[in-house]
Write a structure and sequence with these properties.
Blueprint (H helix, E strand, L loop, with lengths): L1 E7 L2 E6 L10 E9 L2 H9 L1 E2 L2 E2 L4 E2 L3 E9 L11 E4 L2 E2 L5 H4 L10 E2 L16 E4 L4 E4 L5 H4 L2 H14 L6 E5 L3 H12 L4 E6 L2 H10 L3 E4 L17 E6 L4 H10 E9 L12 H6 L3 E4 L6 H11 L8 E6 L3 H9 L6 E5 L1
Parallel strand pairs: 13-14, 13-16, 14-15, 16-17, 17-18, 19-20
Antiparallel strand pairs: 1-2, 1-6, 3-7, 3-11, 3-20, 4-5, 7-8, 8-12, 9-10
Helix pairs in contact: 4-5, 4-9
Length: about 350
Amino acid sequence: MRAAVIHAPHDLRIDDIPEQAFGDNDVKVRIGAGGICGSDLHYYHHGGFGTIRIQQPMVLGHEIAGTVIATGSSVTSVRAGDKVAVNPSLPCGVCRYCMEGSANHCLDMRFYGSAMRNPHVNGGFREELVCTPAQAIKLPADVSIEEAAFAEPLAVCLHAARQAGPLLGKRVLVTGTGPIGALLIMVARLAGAREVVATDLLDPPLALARIIGADRTVNMRSDPSGLDEYAANKGTFDVVFEASGSAVALATAIALARPGATIVQVGNNADAAPPVPLNVLVAKEITLRGTFRFHEEFARAVDFIVSRRIDVRPLLTEVVPLADAVRGFELASDRSRAMKVLLAF
């Protein structure tokens, strides 16, 4: 089958790869669409991020959905012809964190399209994929595969919202309005936030942020003092989702958060060393929390997409054929033109 395989920075090829083994408790899915994620772009442009680097060719992709084409004899949850969103997370189920209910911290995790293990775990940018029944979340016939491909990034945002705590009636700041920031805006609005303010360095994603639910947007490049009013009286925001991975954005978040606020660090830039103003963090008793992947939130993300309580369709920029994957990756890298780019298989 054909697959999008990264060999080195800017060396993305459409390779022929062998079929996967298929057993009694497996589900074979013909992949229909896959979203290009920020981590895919890090592999494409830099060969990885932080200390994680590709050591051998690896199939990219973990935001995937498709149609079941075969099931093993023991599988009863789905059958051939069903549309499914595919959860890219495969925890071991037996380590201490899995047993504690924190499977996103599994000690033996196999996550699609990740170079954290060696040999690497190949991803889902391929024509066919074999997964477990638990990973194949059935979709209604009237939900598009393109929409279902948003389940993984939405699950990331739902887990981040869980880290923040209740959002009902809260004033929320989202820094960085890429796909994750945009979905966080929608999640905050759905959760009953009183006000949602969003920032970025580019106007096109901010324009979309207003369409999908932000009450106010600020371009921090063209209007660097645009948030100054929120710093009055020790700060304004109850919750901040820092989705850019910028050290400057985190420092700004601490300045604008009110005493007792929670900042959830969603963006991950392993190459940046944020100068956290600890004196302000301490004096304002701010909670700074990380957020990492998801677990049970994946099925909930599918539910939100199916019900259209979260309508991901405005975020879709273009669906690019697998044969044009390099063009798709270049388009996804241009935030002035693209929010979310999908590959079609």
